[in-house]
């Protein structure tokens, strides 16, 4: 299905279009790129680097716990490591990885050339990068935060956590949320206003639906944790009393703010994963997924309900029982949309002749792991049961089953599935299978026994335990298993690096998939689509009347960056949007903002300097500039050729 | 099953092939879970196992767990079996479920059954939760436990709420009589958890939480802080000793009285060493040591453990703890005490006499 090849009837105009959308070559120009594919790709790669870092931290922690009363790490270093592990996995891997996939894929899947605010996109990436680098600098300087990724007050307050660690944490959390919000706002506008003509909401790919729901969740969830971390920063720097009981504040206020974000956070990670699963199942069964509408509704329902159950993280804090009961019911209720999804997928798989390539293996692995995590999730929604297992290793097991099953397996499936689109080459199938087998076995051997450790009374976040507790055998086995798991992940990373240059060439649509991202070359040209496609069904690539061509839009200028804006519900062509060119200003602005925030930790007045610098960068960013190439004005008038 | 394995081996090189791994996974998972279950009976001297309950509350929770466990086993097996069945049914002759059949399938398996199971679970756990969260009976023993970084202060209260006796890191309770525990914190959030007696309840600064339990057998039950509370969260433990009512009454009476005066000369010297070096932080009722930053040591020799249930209370351990507490619990709030060997010896003799 080389559907693009036949469009290129006019080489001169195609060349001009390519030049118009080109990201300037050269390393120095790296910081000027604003294209969604470059930014999305960087998000994915950077998030994988953080995933590897956090994984290494986990392995070091497992070495500490391999035997009772081990002295490999002291309590201080151990506490820094588990804080960094959780913070990295939640904020620096999972959300950016999913956003990265969304930023890369959503515009391709809806048939447009770029996102609505490319410069904001670039700014979001640099903010993320700066936050990550700063946080890891603090670790290597030996002053990383050590109050847990949840940073409960009063422990996280200045009275009990002196030093810069928590300042780094509050600043970087605020930072990473700025990045997430930028991406979310962009994805919402892009998805709602730039879909290819004819792609009504009910024809939108499920992955795009999932990204849309995720983005709305980010918009509502992230501000609460930003508010929380700003209040905490004020408590620490200026001795306000928001969370100080003695000063009339309330330590539980922090927990409410944190978990009002923190619980939806889990679903912010999982919802896009559900979209990935739907895409892959449809492709690998070669037929449309069953229950499109049910799947969309359950995605939306998951998004809504996930905001109603944050208090189940606080069942042991002594809140009144009647109030807690509401959250038990809400926590159990979220199992229903999840059940609908799972059974829609099973119905879709029913009787299909399936290709068991690596992406599909990860999806099947997802079913087993995620169902276990979901079942223990329903268990911890029960208040009395939770009072026994809360903050024990049972919950460590539960959350890793949910997050690895619900996010990492689908993400890796997506990585194998879309890798050829991003790089033009397939990942090695043999390495992929080995990687999958090790990850699947490693996950179960590492985390399943933790349920039992929890019942035996082993609390979370302990750097040591006494020899007489009877926990050493399981801990020993878990540590070995963790290295199996680590090896599995390492194989996929190696696979990704090697296949970049040595993998088999993929062609535009190696999996015979049905959605629009496969209607262009792999990797896509600078302009994504030579002609913007027109869509008349949910599975455009399977439903073309002529196998080689989609209907398309013509008439956009080739000498400047133009996009088609369509109506929100029906995706009727509405207007043409002129996009900005590559620019260094988003990068400079992120440096200025970073300087202000990081400087604030050392000298409060540096914030003012950062603020002033930011002002200049914004002026530079907004300075009017001619958006077209000189002397080459040209319209694409090849209506008849598409 | 052999057929699957054979197919898998022969097809390994082929990148896109048509076999089902689901069966293998099922076997693997069953093996895993049965292996883990076989171990569930592990028991050691310091067992904190929630599956060996020693109170009526912990027993109820254990029952709830086993119900949920078997329900989960059934659900998990059913989902995996459906998945495997669905995958296998297409191997020879691909087919599609009709959309009515699919719809019925999703409505029954994905909506109706979960809704029923979840309603039962929510109902059951709310009723149990209500009985656990209810106020304790009026004849309950009143105890106030305060969490500190990183030890436990335990105060026994009389009917008027006055403190009768204060101890640390060791709680004695009568069997078959409800014990009502008031939970407070002196610094950060801690959590009171004795898995064999009761689920955890947090100790939040500025707030008094309540928990209660009725021990149904005598014995020693270890508890451990469950909310991350900083450097030595890992070694913030304590023991609860459940004993017959009469024995408990004797113990309480003894704890309520001040320390007996040192009799030997060594013990008298030891008292002086204590008052000079330890009295700013520790208290021994009946002496000039009236510090309140660390545990009350009035009857320290009667306790079975040291350093918040980290070490058995033996003379050698006590000497090691006094000389270098940072080696045993790095980061704890007790500094090293520099004493001459003779001073240390006298101090130990004195502390030993505090039974």
Automatic annotation (TrEMBL), chain A:
State its Enzyme Commission number(s): 7.1.1.9
Listed under GO cellular component are: plasma membrane
Q: Which UniProt keywords apply?
A: Cell membrane, Copper, Electron transport, Heme, Iron, Membrane, Metal-binding, Respiratory chain, Translocase, Transmembrane, Transmembrane helix, Transport
Recorded hits in Pfam families, A to Z, give: COX1
Q: Which InterPro entries match?
A: Cyt_c_oxase-like_su1_dom (IPR023616), Cyt_c_oxase-like_su1_sf (IPR036927), Cyt_C_Oxase_1 (IPR000883), Cyt_c_Oxase_su1_BS (IPR023615), Cyt_c_oxidase_su1_bac (IPR014241)
What are the transmembrane regions? Answer: 39-61, 81-105, 125-148, 168-192, 204-234, 266-285, 292-312, 324-349, 361-385, 397-419, 431-454, 474-498, 582-599, 605-623
Q: How does it sit in the membrane?
A: Multi-pass membrane protein
Tell me the protein's name: Cytochrome c oxidase subunit 1
